[in-house]
């Protein structure tokens, strides 16, 4: 049995029509019309007025005539049609445009995710946002990374710990690889969140205060690494190798769940000793 591939142009046309037709004109502050409505929902000219585009443009979109709206037009149509977050993302996907990020970055862990981090014990786990700010962690991660409880919230940042914390300078055996991956991630986050002033200020601080960061930043590498291995030299229990996994929840896309697992028997024994301390 053959299945049809998605015709994005025709699906866009149908999606716009169905979203328009489901709207109640009484919910909008629009001029009253003398003639009665013969079709459900808003008229095309009303959507055009709300979105700030021409009526002809809306007609051509709904007729599937091969237009590719800009990101600004897609955003305007989303507002005009009162699309929910999932529908907005779908509209951007159909038009092959990238939505602008308007929400504030997460600065606190979602309660459900905070509980999940705690439930992941004895695996070390933590929750971060796109800046590498550490939002919450379980006791195992706290003992592994050390000093998280004593740091002010503004300094609970994985990249700041690696670059600036005196006790972490020699923490990673392959420090350059860890820093290089972190810089590449921050560059990707910086491009995806151009409005995030705090991120820009953080990058400026790192560039000014750390020559290694500045050198790697100027190389322009971009990478989002969600899986890998790190080797750490813990002052209390020695070398620990961990495999890490980074997961992004659908409902809280700016939060990243980071889970560590011992990479070998010796590392597991070291983590066990750390947990018993």
TrEMBL record:
InterPro entries: Cro/C1-type_HTH, Lambda_DNA-bd_dom_sf, MLTR_LBD. This is Helix-turn-helix domain-containing protein. It holds the Pfam family MLTR_LBD. The lineage of its organism: Bacteria, Bacillati, Actinomycetota, Actinomycetes, Kitasatosporales. Residues 41-88 form the HTH cro/C1-type domain. GO terms for molecular function: DNA binding. PROSITE patterns: HTH_CROC1.
């Amino acid at each position: 049995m053959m299945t049809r591939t998605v015709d994005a142009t025709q699906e866009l046309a149908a999606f716009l029509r169905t979203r328009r037709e489901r709207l109640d004109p009484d919910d909008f502050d629009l001029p009253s019309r003398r003639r009665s409505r013969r079709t459900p929902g808003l008229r095309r000219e009303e959507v055009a007025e709300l979105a700030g585009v021409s009526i002809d443009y809306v007609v051509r979109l709904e007729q599937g005539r091969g237009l590719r709206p800009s990101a600004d037009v897609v955003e305007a149509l989303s507002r005009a049609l009162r699309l929910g977050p999932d529908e907005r993302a779908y509209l951007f996907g159909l038009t092959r445009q990238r939505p602008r990020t308007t929400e504030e970055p997460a600065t606190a862990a979602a309660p459900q995710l905070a509980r999940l981090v705690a439930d992941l014990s004895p695996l070390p786990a933590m929750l971060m946002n796109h800046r590498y700010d550490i939002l919450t962690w379980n006791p195992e991660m706290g003992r592994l990374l050390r000093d998280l409880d004593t740091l002010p919230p503004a300094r609970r940042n994985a990249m700041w710990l690696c670059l600036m914390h005196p006790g972490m300078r020699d923490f990673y055996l392959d420090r350059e690889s860890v820093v290089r991956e972190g810089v590449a991630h921050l560059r990707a986050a910086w491009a995806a969140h151009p409005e995030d002033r705090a991120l820009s200020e953080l990058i400026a601080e790192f560039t000014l205060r750390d020559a290694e960061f500045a050198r790697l930043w100027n190389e322009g590498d971009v990478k989002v690494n969600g899986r890998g291995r790190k080797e750490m030299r813990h002052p209390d229990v020695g070398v620990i190798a961990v495999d890490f996994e980074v997961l992004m929840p659908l409902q809280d896309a700016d939060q990243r769940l980071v889970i560590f697992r011992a990479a070998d028997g010796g590392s597991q024994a070291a983590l066990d000793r750390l947990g018993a301390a």
